[in-house]
Specification:
Radius of gyration of chain B: 19 Å
Strand order of the largest sheet of chain A: 1-2
Oligomer: heterodimer
Structural class of chain A: mainly alpha
CATH topology of the largest domain in chain B: Rossmann fold
CATH superfamily of the largest domain in chain B: P-loop containing nucleotide triphosphate hydrolases
Distance between the termini of chain A: 88 Å
Radius of gyration of chain A: 25 Å
Number of domains of chain A: 2
Helix content of chain A: over 70%
Largest sheet of chain B: 6 strands, mixed
Shape of chain B: globular
Distance between the termini of chain B: 45 Å
Strand content of chain B: 15-25%
Order of helices and strands of chain B: EEEHEEHEHHHHEHEHEEHH
CATH architecture of the largest domain in chain A: Orthogonal Bundle
Strand content of chain A: under 5%
Number of strands of chain B: 10
Number of strands of chain A: 6
Chain lengths: 630, 255
């Protein structure tokens, strides 16, 4: 009984933190219809700035707390004003989601640069001594967390229900256009909600910092927990977000307490999928429609797609360059090129799902891990041929992808994307936790070199040429499909699902196929990664990798198939060329992703192509029925 | 078998306090062009959305060539040969004009994604044939010169024409067109009328929502008049023009 009470207390504490994060996500979602993945990043910022002010600079707690929250909010507002708000009027929802993923990466990278990679812990606000309430020991920080959560809830409730600003926020959510006609400055209010969400996130992070050690990359965990809480409670209901957060916290602690902490992560994914299947509106169904009204009005992001001639024009010189390149570069560079190629295969899959079908996948690293560990374990532990391991990994990834998409495909909005994020985090925890199978945090060792029967691909040079051929084959195959009926159907779905269905295109099945291709290629990439390194550790295929792959795709150019190659090369090779800058890699990924959306929406390759078109003076012809052919 | 292309039987739909479509029954005979007219808010677009099951009806049933459409999804209905266009042209942005039109033939493609990935000769030939058919169609409607342009860069009138071509590529048996002439100038409207006649003569039944009365009277074999979600009248253009109820409904709105 006492143990149960203890677990319940722990669950409510964790749940309060989840509820605070969920509240921030709901706030931005209500106003913009966007799930802000950067929310967890603000928690980290809040906690780490508090650490600096309180521990490093020895400021008194109240001053340090206020300064930390002010800094986090100011940062959030600046970030929102520079990226989120201006992008909102130009990008479709799927791109906005990726933009916020970029912001999360950016915040993580910034934290890495400023605070380093070690975890931090802040002293509890009022001493270490736990307090006994009715025989149950509650850490004193727990009372702080509960109190802060109640204050935030009351504050947000008051703002939404009792103030003119709250009314204006609700108007923005219901109909932004009407709000503008009524003289409401929608952009400013959006920024206000974004900044407020940053403040709420920061407070949540600071409150939890004394009982949870936090490091730069914990943002994804918080975002995920907050999103699942929101999905459980109902996307647009503030009460639902709070209830969802508390429920998730208690459920996870119960699972961790009575089964294992691994099960707790699986439970989160299970809860999400069951909720989406059984009660897609959440348990406290919001009043707003789940279908986002803004989607129709938002300008569709154009994608530069190369014709056959363009592909040859770019592909052929590139292929020749890549064929002779190994003779001109050193060993370190060659290894980096091999990694570029391997990651490009995962990006290629992402391009089919995102660039063509418009399905955002945030769990690409999860499929890489499935492929890498399946192939690695089969080869290292059971001595099976590598090719068999690769195929087994692909089959397992395919099964995971189909189960995920079966549940989420018929729902509107970002559910698949977020289910994939949850999936990726679940795989993360499995690779770390199943020590007997995966080798745990220290990694899986003794993976042999890639071989096909007697043919062993042992040297970097051999691997390079093997990958070059594999890449060429994969690009050619995908090119065949993407430039034919299948690719057209995917593009039609990306552009307008309703119109696509009205032409007889089976929307769920095509989305599922695109997602399956994406997962299988990620799995292949993960397997090759393991064989190339002869080693695989959880952080090589952890969730930050998913965001990195997205950055590679967007920076290179979506919907171009080969655009991912320059993107992958830029992000992989730069740290090799400039070793001292390696610590800035994550920061640069996030910044480049956000900037690309802002300034080079077609990516490097698309931008180059546009430049070429412009240089050749190809002005668009006008519609002139008078001069029509007879 | 019935010779009706479309049978609407007791269809009803309510949006909140508005009875958009109320106990509506009529039949569109196979062959020919049927025009659906009525004042704004008469329920014309709602009727199209109900027929194609974009949202479910509260009551009633729709039969297409004798087959009930109840419970079938939009893509199933399209597969049966019932195609529609939208009031605001919903061409696919991000694709060029030719690709847009080719996308309409999705259901006829026999070679799957795997065959396309392997560049099988059959798949390439099928693709080339499709491209030719789409190009011919664009040539027919005077859009041949624009086929490589991004479809979203075209003016609304041309986009609507592209959308009609796209639906026609699906080899429909019944084509539902939602205000295809809106936004067209007089010469474009005349071209559209000729196009619709030609499509109809190739054996496709057409049902068209249209506000342009001279176009309706010019091309329609049958006119169906809706008012406040109910059937007001049905008959030949000559009958409808003289029908006192129709005149009253229109004058009531016009003044």
């Amino acid at each position: 009984m006492n143990q149960f009470a203890q677990i319940m207390v722990g669950g409510l504490l964790q749940g309060s933190v989840f509820a605070i994060i969920a509240l921030g996500i709901t706030l931005v979602y209500r106003v913009t219809g966007i799930i802000n993945l950067a929310q967890g990043g603000f928690c980290i910022l809040g906690a780490l700035t508090l650490y600096t002010f309180q521990v490093e600079w020895s400021w008194p707690l109240p001053l340090a707390f206020i300064a930390a929250m002010a800094a986090t909010t100011a940062f959030g507002v600046a970030l929102g004003a520079a990226t989120f708000v201006p992008a909102l009027s130009r990008l479709p929802n799927s791109s906005m989601l990726m933009l916020t993923a970029g912001l999360l990466t950016f915040i993580g990278g910034l934290a890495l640069v400023v605070w380093g990679s070690q975890p931090f812990i802040v002293p509890p606000f009022s001493g270490e001594q736990p307090i006994a309430i009715l025989g149950v020991l509650v850490p004193s920080q727990g009372l702080w967390i509960g109190g802060i959560a109640l204050l935030i809830i009351a504050g947000v409730w008051y703002l939404m229900a009792r103030t003119a600003t709250g009314m204006a926020l609700i108007t923005c959510a219901e109909n932004p256009l009407a709000a503008r006609f009524m003289g409401i400055d929608v952009a400013r209010l959006t920024l206000f909600s974004f900044g407020l969400a940053a403040l709420i996130g920061g407070i949540g992070g600071a409150a939890v910092a004394p009982i949870m050690s936090l490091q730069f990359d914990a943002g994804g965990f918080f975002t995920n927990a907050g999103f699942i809480a929101v999905a459980l409670g109902g996307m647009s209901s503030l009460g639902g977000a709070i209830a969802g957060g508390l429920f998730l916290g208690v459920a996870e602690q119960l699972a961790a307490g009575y089964v294992s902490s691994l099960f707790a992560n699986g439970l989160a994914l299970g809860l999400l999928l069951v909720t989406l299947l059984w009660r897609p509106r959440g348990f406290f169904g919001g009043t707003l429609r789940r279908r986002d009204v803004r989607e129709e009005a938002r300008v569709y992001r154009s994608v530069v797609r190369f014709g056959g001639r363009g592909m040859v024009l770019i592909g052929l010189p590139l292929l020749i360059l890549l064929l002779v390149l190994p003779d001109f570069v050193g060993g370190g560079m060659l290894s980096s090129l091999v990694i570029t190629f391997i990651l490009f295969i995962a990006v290629l899959g992402l391009d089919v799902a995102m660039g063509y079908a418009g399905q955002v996948s945030l769990g690409q690293s999860g499929f890489m891990a499935v492929g890498g560990y399946t192939a690695g374990i089969l080869a290292a532990t059971y001595d099976l041929p590598p090719a068999l391991g690769i195929l087994a990994g692909m089959a397992l990834s395919l099964a995971c992808a189909l189960s995920l998409s079966l549940v989420t495909m018929r729902l509107q909005g970002a559910y698949l994307a977020l289910a994939t994020l949850t999936f990726g985090l679940l795989v993360d925890s499995l690779t770390v936790g199943l020590v007997d199978v995966t080798g745990g945090p220290s990694g899986l060792v003794g993976i042999p070199a890639l071989s096909f029967g007697p043919l062993v691909i042992g040297t970097p040079r051999a691997m390079y040429y093997f990958l070059l051929v594999l890449m060429a084959v994969l690009v050619a195959a995908l090119l065949g499909a993407m430039r034919s009926g299948f690719g057209r159907a995917l593009q039609a779905i990306r552009a307008d699902q309703t119109a696509a269905a009205a032409l007889g295109i089976n929307v769920p099945r095509h989305k599922m196929a695109a997602f399956a291709i994406s997962a299988v290629l990620a799995s292949l990439s993960g397997s090759l990664y393991a064989f190339d390194f002869h080693f695989l550790s959880p952080d090589m295929v952890a969730t930050p990798r998913s965001f990195e792959l997205i950055a590679m795709l967007i920076i290179g150019g979506e919907g171009t198939l080969i655009g991912g190659l320059p993107g992958a090369a830029l992000i992989t090779l730069l740290p090799t060329l400039f070793q001292p800058f390696a610590v800035y890699k994550t920061l640069a990924e996030g910044a480049l992703l956000a900037l690309t959306f802002q300034y080079l929406p077609d990516g490097m390759l698309g931008g180059l192509w546009r430049l070429g078109q412009w240089a050749r003076g190809l002005a668009p012809a006008r519609f002139a029925p008078g001069r029509a052919a007879p | 078998m019935s010779d009706a292309a479309l049978e609407v039987i007791g269809l009803a739909k309510r949006f909140g306090g508005v009875q958009a479509v109320a106990d509506l029954s009529f039949t569109v005979p196979a062959g020919g062009i049927a025009a659906l007219i009525g004042p704004n808010g008469a329920g014309k677009t709602t009727l199209f959305n109900l027929v194609t099951n974009l949202f479910p009806a509260d009551a009633g049933e729709v039969r297409f060539l004798g087959t009930s459409l109840r419970g079938r999804g939009p893509s199933d209905i399209a597969a049966l040969g019932l195609l529609r266009t939208f009031q605001t042209a919903r061409i696919f942005p991000g694709m060029n004009v030719l690709e847009n039109v080719m996308a309409g033939a999705h259901r006829q493609i026999r070679h799957g994604a795997a065959a396309q990935m392997l560049w099988l000769p059959g798949a390439r030939h099928e693709e080339a044939a499709l491209r030719r058919r789409a190009a011919d169609l664009l040539d027919l409607v005077g859009l041949a010169g624009l086929r490589d342009q991004p479809a979203a860069s075209l003016p609304m009138g041309a986009q609507k024409m592209v959308e009609v071509c796209r639906a026609f590529m699906a080899r429909p048996r019944l084509l539902l067109l939602d205000e295809p002439a809106a936004g067209l100038n007089d010469s474009e409207t005349a071209e559209l009328a000729a196009l619709l006649r030609a499509v109809c003569d190739s054996g496709v039944t057409i049902m068209v929502v249209e506000h342009n009365m001279s176009l309706v009277m010019d091309i329609a074999d049958q006119v169906i008049v809706l008012d406040l979600g109910r059937l007001l009248a049905q008959g030949t253009p000559r009958d409808i023009q003289r029908d006192p109820r129709v005149i009253e409904a229109y004058l009531g709105v016009a003044t």
